[in-house]
Design goal:
It is built from one helix and 24 strands. By secondary structure, it is mainly beta. The chain has two domains: 132 residues, no CATH class; 159 residues, TolB, C-terminal domain (Neuraminidase, 6 Propeller), CATH 2.120.10. The strands form six sheets. A four-stranded antiparallel β-sheet has the order 1-24-23-22, with no helix packed on it. A hairpin with a 4-residue loop joins strand 7 and strand 8. The longest helix is centred in the first third of the chain and has 20 residues.
């Protein structure tokens, strides 16, 4: 009986590999210039004045790391790139943070793992707003439970409060994620812990986090277990909504991107070791299809449905590739709406 089970598992694995091998590669429209070390996670800033001049940010995960800025041709924008960072891991972006009574700014936030903190910069002027960084997981007692990895920003549509939800290298079975409220006053920008939430299987780690602001929903990858789903509003409580998708991944469930149209939404998640992406219905979380974008070992991905000029008139999907670069795809080529 044991040998029969092993054979069945092997046959299923071979079938999965054969199916994946037949998936046609959707060629990238742009492959960025390479970073120095190890790409990981992207974020997209849509320029409100001229969308064709939007910026893609991407982490270079190393002790001497950086947040790279790329134009839509994939060229590095050196004066928008942040260097001298200690292992930046994941990055996210939010619009319209209330900096003072008269000023709103767009911001990027990213984790700086080796300094056990998160950073906050304004976009596109790239000014630090954090006085050097906000410490995270300061109550951690076990090794690696104070090392931030994943981050996602959430701006509440009800209160306009801005939050950073942060994951780490490892953590407890309950309360793995910490949620910080980011505020600004005459003394500067501040970070305050408002809750600990989120289950963890203990199998590997939690890195990829994405938030549907409009619906107030957090998705994160419990890497060898499932995609977990929670409410983003602290007052909605810490009960898990669902844990789904595990049957469609070989090993690590990785980067998550949310593509929202007027009447339809999609969750696009990296199937890391198969080098493909699984697409789920955002509302029902039902599996839709698998796509091959040509990237290898994708950690992070991001998407916008906004038209970005003539280069990407249908929106943009950005994914990390294990060759120190990022792939840019015209969103229409993913055929989400077909």
């Amino acid at each position: 009986m044991k040998n029969l089970k092993i054979n069945i598992i092997f046959i299923c694995f071979v079938a999965l590999m054969a199916c994946t091998a037949k998936l046609p590669i959707i060629a990238a429209h742009v492959v960025t210039e390479t970073t120095l070390h190890d790409t990981d996670d992207p974020a997209i800033w849509v320029n409100p004045k001229d969308a064709s001049k939007s910026i893609v940010f991407g982490t270079d995960k190393n002790t001497e790391g950086a947040i790279y800025a790329f134009d839509l041709e994939g060229k590095i924008i050196e004066n928008k790139t942040i260097r001298g960072l200690k292992r930046p891991n994941n990055v996210d972006l939010e619009y319209g943070f209330q900096l003072n009574d008269s000023t709103k700014v767009d911001v990027i936030a990213f984790t700086e793992r080796e300094r056990q903190q998160i950073r906050l910069f304004s976009v596109p002027d790239m000014k630090a707003l954090d006085n050097g960084g906000f410490p995270v997981f300061i109550d951690a007692k076990e090794p690696e439970t104070n090392l931030p990895m994943g981050i996602a920003l959430y701006k509440s549509p009800k209160t306009n409060k801005l939050y950073a939800i942060v994951g780490r290298k490892t953590g407890p079975k309950q309360g793995y994620l910490y949620q910080y409220h980011l505020t600004s006053d005459s003394l500067g920008v501040h970070s305050r812990l408002v809750r600990k939430f989120g289950e963890f299987s203990g199998k590997k780690e939690i890195e990829a986090i994405a938030i549907d602001d409009e619906a107030g929903i957090v998705y994160y990858s419990d890497e060898k277990h499932c995609i977990r789903k929670y409410y983003a509003e602290p007052i909605k409580g810490n009960e898990e909504i669902s844990c789904f998708g595990s049957a469609y991944f070989k090993e690590d469930i990785e980067g998550i991107a949310i593509a929202k149209y007027q009447d339809k939404g999609f969750l696009i998640v990296s199937n890391q070791q198969v080098h493909t992406f699984n697409v789920f219905d955002l509302k029902t979380n039902a599996f839709i299809k698998e796509i091959n974008l040509g990237t290898i070992e994708t950690d992070g991905c991001e998407v916008t449905t906004a038209a970005l000029g003539d280069k990407f008139p249908n929106g943009l999907f950005v994914s990390m590739n294990d060759k120190k670069n990022f792939f840019f795809h015209d969103l229409k080529k993913l055929k989400l709406l077909e």
